[in-house]
Amino acid sequence: MHWSTPLRTFTVRSLHVSVICTILLFSIVAIFSSPTPIHAAGETVNVWLTTSDLSTHLAPQANLTFANGGGGGNVISVNENQTYQQMDGFGASFADSSAWLVYNKMSSSQRSTLMNNLFSSTSGIGLSFLRQPLGASDLTPPAPTVGEYSYDDIPAGQTDFSLAHFSINHDTAYIIPVLKQALQINPALKIMGTPWSPPGWMKSSGSMEGGTLNSNAYSAYANYFAKYVQAYQAQGLPIYAITPQNEPLYVPNGYPGMSFPATDETNFIKNNLGPTFAQNGITTKILGYDHNWDQPSYPNTILGDASANSYTAGTAWHCYGGTVDAQTTVHNSFSNKDTWETECSGGTWENSNGFPNTMSLLIGVVRNWGKSVVRWGMVLDPNGQPNLGTGAACSTCRGVVSVDQNSGNVTYNGDYYGLGQASKFVAPGAYHIDSSAGNNGIQDVAFKNSDGSKVLVAYNSASSSQTFNVQWGGENFAYTLPAGAAATFKWSGTQSGGGSGAPIGKTIWLNATNGNYVSARIDQSNNPLNASATQVQAWEEFDVIDAGNGRIALKSHANGDYVSTRIDQSNNPLDASATQVQAWEEFTWLPQSDGTIALQAQANGNYVSARTDQNNTPLDAMVTQIQGWEKFTWGQV
Fold it and tell me: Which pLDDT score is estimated for 17?
């Protein structure tokens, strides 16, 4: 069949138009339906520096810019897709001495400047957490100006179980005005309360010093806390949390204190304090312990009691004994409970301006699940005054800032600038995010604010300058930090690449649904992984390695080999004998809604499973859906 020329011309032209329209249509669809374009590098990084001698302090530095690719050498990998605890804040205590100095020894203009420098995140460092003594502590002006006091003091030999004489009038003179000013400057401020001692009439010693809580005073003491929370709330000062006793395992001679053994505090929380708060509609958190890292058995006792556990939000810690990883040890046992560091004093014993210890404290506490980083006295004079003056009271403590009692002039100590390296840039509610620990003296910790901005704090504890590379997904920048200095890096944008969501750079354990730990112990020639270990030792520890492209590898801590799913037997057991990472050694880390994780093998797309199909419960990667045996709880070693 032959078309006429006009028809053929029209048909060809129509075909041309049709093809062109089709191409345009598919182009438009492709533009709007294609994946998000590859993330471009070039985010600006703001930098603030404090040097060891404080000659440079929280000073803005030249901006940096992320570049594509990875860097070598000392690498800090920041992964915003792996989040840990949310931060409550950074701060110290406006103990009686601190408030007395600020209110009575400074002019209103001096006080206003100081308070803004402490609590404003724009003109100051934005402190957002205060731990306040209920009554006297060792940082209280000596008698006859103040001396030891509680909120229910009555003549010796008398009792007041109805708390008819309860009053916070002492605090209204200068403590509450200072706290109100702080809260006005920073509305996100959280206040927690801690007693150094109950009223003396409640105790076996009959005094604010020493003794134990009388068994017939447990109910009254619980009501004492309730009245404190209600009285402060009436002053416009909400109390975020309380602890039942400051340092319950230490009984000082010369300032208020009390022995409160773990079993006694547990009984007090579950039988008295928790129910009293509940009956009065008080939502103030109850934190257990409030003492040193060297006695994790104490918080374990509280949290191990089902009734006390139900009333307890978590554990408060001090820094004067043990090591900070005790926080992680308790967290791993009670992962649904939170962690706070609530006291760590600076003083002349540090042989420094306070900056080194504050930086190490801040980084260590947060990397071990701490929601708060708290020094002790907020303000003292340059000689550690005033204090109770009993000899036992701390006369060598240093305030976050020092105020001259004669002139009202302020010295901002290293504690101030150390806290400020984080508190000025990390807003309450920010998440601690994953970052690998640096080497050669570089310590670091990272955060993600609610606005999406990232904050990395790095401290060089080495005696010489150190260069390191910050890796964020598929981008990086390099920086050289002087000896003893700290830098804060802040940037925005969204991480691209390298974001597995896994705890990259950490050593972890995995626990199967049968309650046992995944192990790489060599008990057969093919060294299969199983889930039959009842405790974590070297063979149950695995280093989480970034395998790129959002995937991870697991390196056995015991033999240095990688976990592999290579099919070399019919049951495809996982082993830890591969010396390099290829597809069979790569996994996708999949967080589950119940807090567990699943591992998907890159090579075959199946899930790692601990289903019991042999006596030794070997792990394999043959399951096509995630159920109980494919879920693992995990924790950091």
Answer: 40
Task: Kindly list the distances between the CA atom of residue 178 and the CA atoms of 217, 389, 406, in Å, as whole numbers in the listed order.
Answer: 32, 23, 20
Task: Give me the residue label for tokens 């609530």.
Answer: 342
In CATH, which of 3.40.50.880, 2.60.40.1220, 1.10.230.10, 2.80.10.50 is domain 506-636? 2.80.10.50
Q: Classify residue 307 as exposed, middle or buried by CB count within 10 Å of its CB (0-12, 13-18, 19+).
A: middle
At 89, list the tokens: 């804040």
* Percent of the chain predicted with pLDDT > 90: 74
Q: What one-letter code names the amino acid at 155?
A: P
Examine the residue annotation and report whether 247 is marked as an active-site residue of this protein: yes
Residue 475 and residue 66 in contact, taking contact as beta carbons nearer than 8 Å: yes
Domain with CATH 2.60.40.1180 in the chain: 48-85+433-491
Phi and psi at residue 290, in whole multiples of 5°? 70, 50
Question: How far is it, in rounded angstroms, from Cα 163 to Cα 153?
Answer: 10
Q: Where in the chain is the domain with CATH 2.80.10.50?
A: 506-636
Band of residue 71 on the pLDDT scale cut at 50, 70, 90: confident
Longest dimension (CA), the chain: 124
Cis preceding linkage at 144, omega within 30: yes
| Given 341, 343, 541, 630, the catalytic residue | 343
Q: Where are the beta strands (DSSP E) in 200-266?
A: 241-242
3-state secondary structure of 67: strand
Positions of CATH 3.20.20.80 in the chain: 89-428
Active-site residue, selected from the candidate residues 80, 247, 586, 630? 247
How far is it, in rounded angstroms, from Cα 188 to Cα 191?
Answer: 10
Q: Write the pLDDT tens digit of every residue in 158-167.
A: 999 999 999 9
Half-sphere exposure of residue 269, counting CA atoms within 13 Å on the CB side? 32
Phi and psi dihedrals of 533, rounded to 5? Answer: -80, 140
Q: What is the pLDDT of residue 73?
A: 82
Out of 2.60.40.1180, 3.50.50.60, 3.30.470.20, 2.60.410.10, the CATH code matching 48-85+433-491 is 2.60.40.1180
Closest by CA position to 209, among listed 244, 160, 162, 258? 258
Compute the distance between CA of residue 343 and CA of residue 337 in angstroms, rounded to an integer.
19
Dump strand ranges (E) for 449-529: 454-460, 466-472, 475-481, 486-491, 507-511, 517-519
**102-138 burial: b if 16+ Cβ within 10 Å, else e:** bbebbeeebbeebbbbbbbbeebbbbbbbbbbbbbbb
- In the chain, the amino acid numbered 626 is I
475 is catalytic: no
**Calculated CA dihedral for residues 82, 87, 90, 94, nearest 10 degrees:** -160
In this prediction, residue 14 carries a pLDDT of: 43
DSSP secondary structure, 385-437, as one string: --S--SSSS-SSEE-SEEE-TTT--EEE-HHHHHHHHHHTTS-TTPEEEEEPP
In the numeric block, the tokens 């000013």 are attached to: 181
Please provide the CATH number assigned to the domain covering 89-428.
3.20.20.80
Please, what is the angle between helix 108-119 and helix 96-104, to 10°? 130
- Find the length of the chain: 637
With beta carbons less than 8 A apart as the criterion, state whether 563 and 541 touch: no
